[in-house]
Specification:
Radius of gyration: 20 Å
Number of helices: 10
Shape: globular
Number of strands: 0
DNA-binding region: 41-60
Structural class: mainly alpha
Protein name: AcrR family transcriptional regulator
Pfam family, one: TetR_C_14
GO molecular function: DNA-binding transcription factor activity; transcription cis-regulatory region binding
Distance between the termini: 67 Å
Order of helices and strands: HHHHHHHHHH
CATH architecture of the largest domain: Orthogonal Bundle
CATH topology of the largest domain: Tetracycline Repressor, domain 2
Domain HTH tetR-type: 18-78
């Protein structure tokens, strides 16, 4: 006879899984920063998180997965922020506003540490590049849907590519000036772009 699981018990199990997931992420980031990405092992991360290696592998298949899971929600958050912009806004204004909204929410010490870790670790840079490509595709798709344009609309693809390029520049600038957040650097980059194009900034 199958054991009956009550809703409260299901909720408790879900919370425990979320707590374990977050603990592995936090301890993984801490160890990767302290010992270097190549210097820390999955066994060490598991021990620090208070779980077995087997349990850790039920959540994450590799050290890379732990790192990139910390940024996993960003693409969808950007898409949602852009989709919430007024549909009559110019494309660049939609991109700038959406990116600024998300950047402000991720201006934290942990995200700065994560950005520095990826920037300093060649083994992570290829995966990070692929993540940016995914953001660009999703951003272009979101812009096209918001504007009622074809999925492969050139203007939407260009605006998305510009936005992702500025995301990268803002991240690099944040590393050089950690006391100032990526949102400010992103805004500055969009302002420079508009001056180069002879376009006035939005009111």
């Amino acid at each position: 006879m199958q054991e009956k699981v009550f809703p409260d018990e299901q909720g408790l199990r879900a919370r425990k899984r979320q707590e374990t997931h977050a603990r592995i992420q936090a301890e993984g980031l801490r160890l990767f920063i302290e010992k270097g990405f190549d210097g820390a092992t999955l066994d060490e991360v598991a021990a620090a998180a208070g779980v077995s290696r087997r349990t850790l592998l039920n959540y994450f298949g590799s050290k890379e997965e732990i790192v990139f899971s910390l940024k996993a929600q960003i693409p969808e958050m950007i898409a949602q922020a852009v989709a919430a912009r007024p549909c009559d806004e110019p494309l660049l204004d939609m991109v700038e506003g959406g990116l600024a909204d998300v950047a402000a929410r991720f201006q934290t010490p942990d995200m700065l540490d994560l950005t520095r870790l990826i920037h300093q670790t060649p083994a992570l840079q290829a995966g990070d590049h692929a993540k940016y490509e995914g953001v660009e595709r999703l951003l272009a798709q979101t812009l096209a849907e918001r504007k009622g344009l074809a999925p492969d609309d050139v203007a939407c693809r260009v605006a998305a590519a510009i936005g992702v390029s500025i995301m990268k520049l803002a991240g690099e600038a944040w590393l050089a000036h950690p006391d100032e957040g990526p949102e400010r650097f992103g805004r500055e980059a969009f302002a420079v772009l508009r001056r180069m194009a002879g376009q006035r900034p939005p009111p």
